[in-house]
Design brief:
Layout lengths: L3 E4 L5 H10 L3 E5 L11 H8 L7 E6 L4 H11 L3 E4 L5 H10 L4 E7 L8 H5 L5 E5 L19 H10 L4 E3 L8 H8 L3 E4 L4 E2 L2 E2 L1 H20 L3
Helix pairs in contact: 3-4, 7-8
Length: about 230
């Protein structure tokens, strides 16, 4: 299986194009609140996503926690996929399926402990995929991703085994550790932000090294029959 690669926290059309040219399957834009250095405004996301050619997927990271709020945010940005970083109430998730039938909906699960596994049943009927990250949304200052921190990949591996949906793995991935992550977790896709950045900017060398590591590991796993 070819592991999908999503490059997140992109801040300009130039960064998006660099990621696509390097071999990314998806590009992500951060519009979470409270704002961080990675956040860009909705009009910029809309302008960039309009220039991204198919079949590259465009992801909006939103902290909206109601179906109507998420739907409005997607409409304002024109993306093809929405990455829901808050643990959405199940009724809101059901409602969102009705409001955004043509938009791919990806529910983030913040893996703080084994209780993350309980979320599979909560969302499987409402979304298209899961994304496992290392945020801490319950902290006084919520963390919704981009931490540069890994989590317990044993929990992530069990999540993949149990999930009926595709699962992306995020959280502290780098060119140096992505091969181990892939062998351990066997995700559908990998997603990263800080691991391909230097001084806050997308680093072409790190980007190339990461994508080469993923593709090399894909080949190794395929040859081994996995």
């Amino acid at each position: 299986m070819r592991t999908r690669i999503k490059i997140c926290c992109l801040a300009s059309l130039e960064e998006a194009q660099r990621a696509i040219d390097a071999g990314a399957d998806a590009v992500g834009f951060v519009a979470v609140r409270p704002a961080s250095p990675r956040t860009i405004d909705d009009s910029s996301i809309a302008a960039i996503s309009a220039r991204v050619p198919p079949p590259i997927a465009t992801f909006l990271l939103t902290t909206e926690n109601t179906a109507e709020g998420i739907a409005r945010h997607v409409s304002a940005t024109g993306v093809s996929s929405v990455q829901i970083v808050a643990h959405l109430d199940s009724t809101e998730s059901e409602r969102l399926r009705e409001l955004l039938p043509a938009t791919k909906r990806i529910q983030v699960i913040h893996v703080e402990n084994e209780s993350a596994l309980d979320r599979i049943a909560d969302y499987s009927s409402c979304v298209h995929a899961f994304l496992l990250d290392s945020g801490r949304p319950t902290q006084p200052t919520p963390e919704y991703g981009g931490t540069g921190r890994t989590h317990d990949w044993a929990v992530s591996a069990e999540f993949v085994r149990r999930s009926p949906l595709p699962v992306f793995l995020a959280g502290g991935l780098t060119p140096a550790n992505v091969a181990e992550a892939m062998r351990t977790v066997r995700p559908f896709g990998v997603d990263l932000c800080t691991g391909v950045r230097t001084a806050g900017r997308l680093d072409p060398e790190k980007l190339e090294a990461f994508i080469n590591a993923v593709r090399t590991t894909d080949s190794e796993l395929s040859a081994a029959g996995h």
